[in-house]
Specification:
The chain is of the alpha/beta class and 262 residues long. The protein has a single domain (20-257), classed as Rossmann fold (3-Layer(aba) Sandwich), CATH 3.40.50. Helices cover 40% and strands 18% of the residues. The chain has a 6-stranded parallel β-sheet with strand order 3-2-1-6-7-8, with helices on both faces. The protein has a two-stranded antiparallel ribbon with strand order 4-5. The longest helix has 20 residues, at 2-21. The protein starts with a helix and ends in a 5-residue tail after the last helix. Residues 1-5 have low confidence and may be disordered. The structure holds magnesium ion (MG) and zinc ion (ZN).
Length: 262
């Protein structure tokens, strides 16, 4: 039995060496998408394309129950089946969504910062995020991944949004995505150690992720949005530093004056 156990460790040595022997130390900047990179909620804007008759109380009750995934799937079905919009036309609408002022400049500047990886953690979906980033030439800058609900185009052209995960361990987050769990995975990567994490978000669904941050990490919370307003009630749950911002210009000034100064 001892031989078997020892043999097991030997077999895992290459993986253990990767984890403890040669990890790179880097910074990680994590961005939410809706109301953080773009200045609107993408699901809300798409729902505005529906006819008044399609905007039923029953449909919007899904939002009040935080069932975003079912909501956006129904909106996409109505747009495609009843309004006959193609996936490409929905993509065109998405591409025109406005960025938060100054955010494009900030993202492009951060992209050039040495030793910094960037990622998106969003409960939107890969189609809308991908279309928007491509419209601004930013689709390749998030080297640490775009963690969101995947979308596939069906043979009939329908967009199908699938859950990022099916989680049951966190009752603070929807079953399709626990942002805290995504952060845990990023923080425990075998390939890279993040000595400091910058988390940029605006909504209450970012709270679970921010709870995971460590004392040297910085949560950048957008002023005037729902999480900033509710933050005083949750301050005791957080270990990280806090930075508030209203637009990309202010966030850039504050980040490059403190966290990202060379
Ligand atoms: Mg948001
Ligand atoms: Zn969670």
């Amino acid at each position: 039995m001892y031989i078997m156990l020892f043999g097991g460790y030997l077999a895992r040595l290459p993986a253990l060496w990767r984890c403890f022997g040669s990890r790179k130390e880097r910074l990680l900047a994590t961005f939410d998408f809706d109301k953080t990179i773009i200045d609107v909620d993408s699901y809300h804007v798409l729902s505005q394309l529906l006819s008044p008759a399609q905007r039923t109380e029953q449909l919007f009750a899904l939002i009040h129950n935080s069932d975003w995934l079912t909501f956006i799937q129904r909106v996409l079905r109505l747009l495609q089946l009843e309004q006959c919009l193609s996936a490409a036309q929905i993509g065109q609408h998405t591409r025109r969504l406005p960025p938060v002022p100054g955010m494009l400049h900030l993202l492009r500047r951060m992209q050039r910062y040495p030793a910094l990886d960037m990622c998106i953690v969003s409960d939107a979906n890969s189609y809308m995020i991908g279309e928007w980033l491509a419209a601004h030439g930013l689709e390749h800058i998030f080297k640490a991944g775009i963690h969101t609900n995947p979308v596939s185009v069906q043979p009939d052209g329908q967009l199908l949004v699938e859950p990022y995960e099916l989680q049951t361990h966190c009752d603070q987050c929807p079953t399709n995505m626990c942002k805290g769990n995504v952060m845990h995975t990023l923080m425990n990567s075998c390939d890279v150690t993040y000595s400091r994490i910058i988390y940029v978000g605006d909504g209450c669904n970012d709270l679970c992720a921010i709870r995971r941050l460590r004392p040297d990490d910085v949560a950048c919370i957008r002023r005037g949005e729902e999480l900033h307003d509710k933050l005083p009630g949750h301050r005791h749950e957080l270990s990280c530093q806090l930075l508030d911002w209203r637009d990309g210009h202010e966030l850039e000034d504050k980040l490059f004056a403190t966290v990202l100064h060379l």
